[in-house]
Amino acid sequence: MTLLETLARGAGAIAAYAAVGVILMIVGFYVIDWATPGKLSEIIRSERNPNATLLATSALAAVGLIVAASIWASGGRLAEGLAGTAVFGLVGIVVQTVAMLVFDRIVGISVRDLVKEPDLQPGARLLAVTHVAIGLITAVAVI
């Protein structure tokens, strides 16, 4: 294989993984949007709510960890890697959302209340770390 072919193949793989990663992050954003009251993008953009922003960004960071681990675990097998990335990414999004709802019910940290608060709340920090931890756990499980 020539250098040009190698570079083209690598660039194609990067583009494919990036596309799957972006799609997963968009899905993750809208799942978090579904789990929070109001329109999340509006709460972040117009109200500049730090709690909603932290919850959304931590969820996206967690999805990024899962995507990176899936790429690593694929061992250069593109089709398998893309399929694994999509499946493991979706599982991670579901687990994050369930964890957020469980914290709401069991621990009493209400996402609904957090996104109404104009100042950054300790509960938002806790949920954000939970998102990243679940992403990391899922990522390591993939590897």
TrEMBL record:
The family database entries (Pfam families) matched by this protein are listed as: DUF350
Topology with respect to the bilayer: Multi-pass membrane protein
InterPro entries, alphabetically? DUF350
Q: Provide this UniProt record's keywords sorted from A to Z.
A: Cell membrane, Membrane, Transmembrane, Transmembrane helix
Where is the major localization of this protein?
membrane
Residues of the signal peptide: none
Give the transmembrane region(s): 12-32, 53-75, 81-103, 124-142
Q: Where in the cell is it found?
A: Cell membrane
Which family would the database say this protein is a member of?
Answer: Belongs to the UPF0719 family.
Protein name in UniProt:
DUF350 domain-containing protein
